[in-house]
């Protein structure tokens, strides 16, 4: 016999959600991965860089998993629990971890880096990225696309604006900052939530899907979704991702 609704809620509402590791969901939820393989592509670029900056690094999971880091590697993060995790993972690799607010200005000199990266940034500060990039340097990022996991947010919030996270807008903003977009691709990817505990954990961790989420506030919606999953099987949603790479012109003639 499966666990009760109350058991699932109690467990998921108390488990720590620090960092950007989703292994707690193994066997309870699934998400397709983008075909381009961000970590592999990031590793290739890091291996060629001499000075790199990773913005909003989370718990440092992605950088810590790369085969090699540049001689100068800096990561920024704003949330204190993630800062501690990132420092524990990245300092042994020789990287610096800097506490920084989630708004510009970046605390670095002009033209300090030949590679700037970010996975799923809350916002992209294009003018600041262009400022800290060296001529010929690149920004490389995987981002959340429009209407990501909309089916889940719609269940809790009803029909609503799918948001502004759009690849075309990202291209225009990069170009407005003086960068040349050399790669831009997007995909929608299937997600499945196998029990209500997986839903609660996901919404506690990915806080922008249902802003202001709490078990108490959405108890009725959670109970209804639990009964739906019990009757029909996993709840299906779709995440949206896009990859963007933009280069700062080096000023030399073609």
From TrEMBL:
CDD domains: AdoMet_MTases (cd02440). The keyword Methyltransferase applies. GO terms for molecular function: S-adenosylmethionine-dependent methyltransferase activity. Keywords: Methyltransferase, Transferase. Residues 53-139 form the Methyltransferase type domain. InterPro entries: 23S_rRNA_MeTrnsfrase_RlmA, Methyltransf_11, SAM-dependent_MTases_sf. GO terms for biological process: methylation. Pfam families: Methyltransf_11 (PF08241). The keyword Iron does not apply. PANTHER family: METHYLTRANSFERASE, METHYLTRANSFERASE TYPE 11 DOMAIN-CONTAINING PROTEIN. This is Methyltransferase type 11. It comes from [Actinomadura] parvosata subsp. kistnae. The lineage of its organism: Bacteria, Bacillati, Actinomycetota, Actinomycetes, Streptosporangiales.
């Amino acid at each position: 016999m499966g666990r009760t609704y109350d058991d699932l809620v109690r467990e998921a509402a108390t488990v720590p959600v620090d960092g950007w590791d989703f292994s707690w969901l193994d066997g309870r939820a699934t998400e397709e991965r983008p075909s381009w393989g961000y970590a592999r592509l990031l590793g290739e670029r890091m291996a060629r860089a001499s000075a790199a900056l990773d913005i909003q690094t989370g718990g440092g999971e992605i950088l810590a998993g790369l085969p090699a880091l540049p001689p100068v590697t800096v990561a920024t993060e704003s949330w204190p629990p993630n800062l501690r995790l990132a420092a524990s993972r990245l300092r042994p690799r020789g990287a610096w971890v800097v506490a920084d607010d989630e708004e510009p200005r970046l605390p670095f000199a002009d033209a300090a880096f030949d590679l700037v990266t970010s996975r799923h940034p809350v916002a992209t500060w294009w003018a600041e990225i262009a400022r800290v990039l060296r001529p010929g340097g690149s920004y490389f990022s995987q981002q959340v696309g429009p209407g990501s996991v909309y089916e889940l947010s719609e269940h809790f919030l009803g029909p609503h604006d799918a948001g502004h996270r759009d690849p075309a807008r990202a291209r225009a903003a990069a170009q407005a900052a003086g960068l040349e977009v050399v790669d831009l691709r997007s995909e929608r990817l299937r997600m499945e939530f196998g029990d209500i505990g997986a839903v609660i954990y996901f919404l506690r961790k990915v806080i922008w899907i249902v802003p202001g989420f709490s078990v108490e506030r959405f108890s009725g919606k959670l109970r209804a979704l639990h009964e739906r999953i019990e009757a029909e099987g996993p709840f299906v949603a779709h995440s949206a991702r896009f990859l963007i790479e933009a280069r700062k012109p080096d000023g030399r003639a073609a």
